[in-house]
């Protein structure tokens, strides 16, 4: 039988770990994430190895609904329920804060300020920016979790060693 030596496999795991670290460093440098994301990671252990990705996926699912609701409210030309919009934004801000989505949370703060001033044009601009930031976050975290999944697989796969 032929197979890759275990030490070579370890290089793949190390490279994937380094890729994850570089991507996280970039997201922190850009202000996309904050320390809350690291605190979330600290809650993950062997008993729940997918904890962070599960929490983030719940966040994405709920955020999609909130974005649809905000879009729906603003698509109505006769829109005037800024209080309802503020409730959606408070929910979005809270969930974004809980996973460390700093830039998304900051856009929600600006969006809420526009809604408190009954500024429809400002709300439309803020919604566009919110969707942009949310998509960027979602794509980057998806990339991060894919690398993490590859790292976990590379760590558990054992190739036969030549005798």
TrEMBL record:
The keyword Nucleus applies. GO terms for biological process: cytokinin-activated signaling pathway; phosphorelay signal transduction system. It holds the Pfam family Hpt. Keywords: Cytokinin signaling pathway, Cytoplasm, Kinase, Nucleus, Transferase, Two-component regulatory system. GO terms for cellular component: cytosol; nucleus. The keyword Nucleus applies. Residues 54-134 form the HPt domain. Functions as a two-component phosphorelay mediators between cytokinin sensor histidine kinases and response regulators (B-type ARRs). Plays an important role in propagating cytokinin signal transduction. Histidine-containing phosphotransfer domain (HPt) contains an active histidine that mediates the phosphotransfer. This is Histidine-containing phosphotransfer protein. The lineage of its organism: Eukaryota, Viridiplantae, Streptophyta, Embryophyta, Tracheophyta.
């Amino acid at each position: 039988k032929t197979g890759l030596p275990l030490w070579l496999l370890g290089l793949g795991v190390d490279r994937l770990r380094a890729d994850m670290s570089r991507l996280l460093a970039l997201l922190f440098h850009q202000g996309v994430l904050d320390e809350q994301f690291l605190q979330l990671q600290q809650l993950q252990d062997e008993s729940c190895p997918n904890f962070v990705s599960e929490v983030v996926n719940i966040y994405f699912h709920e955020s999609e609904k909130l974005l649809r609701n905000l879009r729906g409210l603003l698509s109505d030309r006769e829109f005037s329920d800024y209080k309802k919009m503020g409730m959606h934004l408070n929910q979005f801000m809270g969930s974004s804060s809980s996973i460390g989505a700093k830039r998304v949370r900051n856009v929600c703060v600006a969006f809420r300020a526009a809604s408190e001033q009954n500024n429809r044009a400002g709300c439309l601009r803020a919604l566009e920016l919110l969707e942009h930031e949310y998509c960027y976050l979602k794509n980057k975290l998806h990339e991060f979790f894919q690398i993490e999944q590859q790292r976990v697989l590379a760590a558990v796969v054992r190739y036969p060693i030549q005798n």
